[in-house]
Structures are given as C-alpha cells and as structure tokens.
C-alpha cells in the first residue's frame, strides 16, 4: 500500500455550527479517506488538543460515529476505527441501489439543464482531483455528485439516506483508489454514463447505468480482502 499521508490539518472551530458536528465531519473524513485505518485507535486527547476543545464534544462526535458503525468504543480501552465489514458494505450497497436507481429513473423523466450543468462541473472537478491523485477531494466530489442527483428529486430524506449508506462503501472504494490503478478514470467514466443516461430520458438506461456503478463494489471486494486482510473482520 502507498504510504499513508499525514492526517489533513484540522480546521478552526466555527461558531456557525456545533462543535460535535464539526468534529464528526473531520473524524468521518479521516475514516472514510483511510487516513484513520481500520483497527486504529483514535486518541481523544490529541483530537481535543488539535481543535482546542474539551473531550466532551470529541466524545459526542465519537458516539455519533459509533451509532453509524464507524468506530467501536471499548470501555477502559478507548475508541477504535471499526474494521471493514463485508456484511455492512453489501447491506449499504443494497440499500443505495434501491434508492439511487429510483433517483436516476425519476430524473430521466424530470431533470432539467441546470442539473446537467451542475453534474458536468462536478465531473470536471473530479478529473482535476484525479490528476492530482487527491483521494479525499475526489471522494468529496463523488459525494457531491450523488447528493446533487438525490437533491434534484426534491425529496430531502433521499439525500440523507444516500449520505448515510454511501460512507461504508466509500471506505473500501478509497482503499481501491490508492491500491488499484485506473480507478479514478473508472469512476469518472461511470459518472459520465449515469449523466448521459439521465439526459437521454430513458428510465431503462438510467437504471442500468446507476446499477452498474453501484455493483462495481463487488469487483473491489474480490481483491481488497486478500490485499489487506488486516482491515477486514
């Protein structure tokens, strides 16, 4: 595996959002981006010092992450990043396919040019992130692409559900970005195919393009556990 980058620098705490929410986003990015590796201990005191806060908001953020399955809090031992769970990844993929195929089909019948423009800008930004081999920026843009599609349905809960389930798949996806060559271009081409299918107005093409994209995790799961068995349950 390529050498892990230093953890990205903590951002100053903003007065416009709750401290636990900001800490949650930071730690989640570290976990999803594979900066905090499966099985790694998360030092509460270092996080508190880094952000200049008490341990209380750190613990609140970690409790929320534990409820979503990203960390495990072990009494008297500390908090650890959960290992990758094949069951949880496949469950998330199943739920995402049910939702996002419906999203793609809906948009094939209702999308307008503004959505296409927004998605094309995101894909262009992903191409730039890929050139820079910036996995975290690439992943944020991937989130943005899927959230943009979900939000375009006008149903707020759709985007929330996609975001919640997507992160578990993204952990193994990010592992493949640094381990398997050609993954950046592969994802970008799939996003282009999804957008083209929606533009065509064909619900069947939209369904096929989105389903193919979400089933791609099966290919990653064929190789990732053998490459890094220590990361999996």
Give an overview in words.
The protein is mainly alpha-helical and 233 residues long. It has ten helices and three strands. Strands 1-3-2 form a three-stranded antiparallel β-sheet, with helices on one face. Strand 2 and strand 3 (78-81) form a beta hairpin. Helix 1 (19-32) crosses helix 3 (55-67) and helix 4 (86-110) runs parallel beside helix 8 (183-200). The radius of gyration is 18 Å and the shape is globular. The two termini are 19 Å apart. The model is unreliable at 1-7 (pLDDT under 50).
Uncertain parts? 1-7
CATH homologous superfamily (4th level) name of the largest domain: GntR ligand-binding domain-like
How does the helix and strand content classify structurally? mainly alpha
Helix content: 55-70%
Strand order, main sheet: write it out.
1-3-2
Distance N terminus to C terminus?
Answer: 19 Å
Radius of gyration: 18 Å
- How confident overall, as mean pLDDT? 90
């Amino acid at each position: 595996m390529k050498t892990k980058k230093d953890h990205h620098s903590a951002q100053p705490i903003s007065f416009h959002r709750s401290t636990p929410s900001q800490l949650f986003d930071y730690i989640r990015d570290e976990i999803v981006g594979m900066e905090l590796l499966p099985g790694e201990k998360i030092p509460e005191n270092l996080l508190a010092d880094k952000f200049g806060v008490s341990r209380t908001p750190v613990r609140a953020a970690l409790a929320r992450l534990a409820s979503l399955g990203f960390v495990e809090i072990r009494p008297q031992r500390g908090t650890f990043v959960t290992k990758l769970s094949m069951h949880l990844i496949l469950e998330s993929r199943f739920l995402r396919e049910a939702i996002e195929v419906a999203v793609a089909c809906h948009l094939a019948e209702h999308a307008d040019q503004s959505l296409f423009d927004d998605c094309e800008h995101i894909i262009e930004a992903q191409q730039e992130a890929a050139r820079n081999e910036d996995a975290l920026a690439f992943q944020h843009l991937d989130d943005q692409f899927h959230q943009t599609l979900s939000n375009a349905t006008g149903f707020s809960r759709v985007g929330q559900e996609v975001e919640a389930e997507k992160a578990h798949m993204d952990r193994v996806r990010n592992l493949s970005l640094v381990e398997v060559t050609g993954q950046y271009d592969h994802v970008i081409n799939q996003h282009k195919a999804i957008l083209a299918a929606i533009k065509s107005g064909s619900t069947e093409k939209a369904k096929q393009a989105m389903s193919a994209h979400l089933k791609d995790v099966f290919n990653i799961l064929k190789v990732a556990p053998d490459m890094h068995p220590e990361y999996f349950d």
